[in-house]
Amino acid sequence: MKMIIKVAAIILCIAVIFTGCSGPDWAAKCGDDTMPAGMYISYLMSAYTNSFSMVSDTDTDIFKQQIEGQDAADWMISNAKSEVSRYYAVKDLFDEYSLSLDSDTAAYVDYVVDYQWGYYGSIYESNGVSKSSMHSVIESNARESELFNYLYGADGIKAVSDEELGAVFADNYMKYRLISIDKGGNETQEDNASDDSSGNDDVSETEADPITLLTGYKDRVEAGESFEQIIYEYNGDETAQFTSGMFDTISLKESGALPEQLEKKLAEAEPGSLILHEGDETVYLIQPLDILENHSDIEYYRSQLVSLLKGDEYEEMIKQKSESLSVEFNEAAIKKYSPKSIKL
Predict the structure, then answer these.
(1) Which domain holds residue 241?
(2) In whole angstroms, what is the distance from residue 252 CA to residue 176 CA?
(3) Are 155 and 168 in the same domain?
């Protein structure tokens, strides 16, 4: 009887293989391409990790919460499926434009996979993700970067103009140089003088209260000194050779890099002027700079600027391509690899 059962089981397995019935070894199909379950699991693991940034209550079990109107587990599955569809959309567009990864990019993909696997391979394996599946996911990320650059890069078929880049740079970024001093980190002149048993009332610059010190610096700049040189003097690092521009800072607006009130003052001030601003805990002496003065700054931030300009257009293209493709999901695999079984 046992032998009959074993034979029946073998026959059933063979039938599954040859008829293509739903087994857990594949997760999705699109055309002639079959995605192994490990790739889907990898996307599911990412969704699981990202879900914690989507809820405000990190103490409550994530699976007892909702994300964007869905139960967390359903949201993770939906997110992973979307990434599968995105994978196929990018792959189809990549082929449509006859693109390929050059040898340097392919080698970098291999390096990233080896590096990630060295650190996290055991975690991925315990969840059913092979190194080959990880490679496919990371390679797809590389293809997507190549596709975006082909479309919108400096030499892309839909390349943006320097004027467009300059406009979005000025709208979204600010450039300045500054000295900021924590109020609580310095003694005032009065405190230092009263504590000086020698009777010497001289106070060094580092011991002056922040407002007095920065007001003095402001006066020196208005008298003709270079603010850059004063910052260099204030930092006191003689091992660093002074070069013009070494203290220039570029920050995304409304990113929290500066206090809201100071950022507003900066936006209204003329480049080259000086602003002395007293915050709750910090005093600032800041000099706004012309964000468009150096074209090299625009080139340095090109990828971020192009993303700001063309990101929505690109995402809409991916969405439309995803919707145009017929992606079949293996619901048996989706059910088997539940987000609740992920082990990190």
Answers:
(1) 163-298
(2) 12
(3) no
- Strands (DSSP E) found in the chain: 26-30, 33-36, 66-67, 70-71, 173-182, 249-252, 275-278, 282-289, 328-329
The pLDDT profile of the chain, 344 residues, written as one tens digit per residue, is 444 334 344 333 433 333 334 446 999 999 999 999 999 999 999 999 999 999 999 899 999 999 999 999 999 999 999 999 999 999 999 999 999 999 999 999 999 999 999 999 999 999 999 999 999 999 999 999 999 999 999 999 999 999 999 999 999 999 999 999 998 754 333 333 334 443 444 445 555 789 999 999 999 999 999 999 999 999 988 788 999 999 999 999 999 999 999 999 999 999 999 999 999 999 999 999 999 999 999 999 999 999 999 999 999 999 999 999 999 999 999 999 999 999 99
Question: 138-152 burial by CB neighbour count: b if 16+ within 10 A, else e?
Answer: bbbeebbebbbbbbb
326 and 267 belong to one structural domain: no
* Cα distances (Å, whole numbers) of residue 253 to 134, 250, 295: 36, 9, 19
What's 60's domain CATH number? 1.10.4030
Work out the angle between the directed axes of helices 162-172 and 302-324 (0-180°, nearest 10). Answer: 100
> Rounded to 5 degrees, what angle do the CA atoms 37, 43, 46 make?
140
Q: Are residues 286 and 316 in the same domain?
A: no
Establish if 306 belongs to a structural domain: no
| Domain-located, residue 16 | no
CATH number at residue 238: 3.10.50
Looking at the structure, tell me whether residues 167 and 152 fall in a common domain: no
